[in-house]
Amino acid sequence: MAWTSPNTVLGLVLGLAGLPFGARIQWRAADLALVFHNWRWGPGGALTLGNVIIHTGEDLDAHCHTYAHKAGWGMEPSVCLADHERAHIYQYMALGPLFLPLYLLSGGVSARNRFERAADRYALSGRGWWPW
Predict the structure, then answer these.
(1) Is the dihedral of CA 9, 10, 12, 16 positive or negative?
(2) Quick check: helix, strand or coil at residue 30?
(3) pLDDT at residue 73, as a whole number
(4) Can you tell me the distance from the alpha carbon of 107 to that of 40, in angstroms, rounded to the nearest whole number?
(5) Is residue 113 a part of any domain in this protein?
(6) Which of 15, 31, 76, 130 could make an SS bond with 36 (beta carbons 3.0 to 4.6 A apart)?
């Protein structure tokens, strides 16, 4: 967790900015994350920064479509959003401050991004969070 602390600090700053607007905090030990629920800005869903998850909804255990499904690459079953974000936490913990540059170089938020595909794979099967 110390290795990814610069990313976690970014997540804390962003999450705390949402508190005056109705965000609430929850520690999820199973995900090794501090979650800010009901974060009011953005298109919806969740964003992981280090060991912080910024979530626009009420329940991180909700199901959502995979990036491949959204891109029209096939009909995959929905996945648990918490499982998808947990994969990103593992990626952050392995790569630390290298995660964000590598994530952006891999295409950002898109179905082509190997980090997103790995997180979807982990959410579908419970393994395979590593993007390479």
Answers:
(1) positive
(2) helix
(3) 79
(4) 25
(5) yes
(6) 15
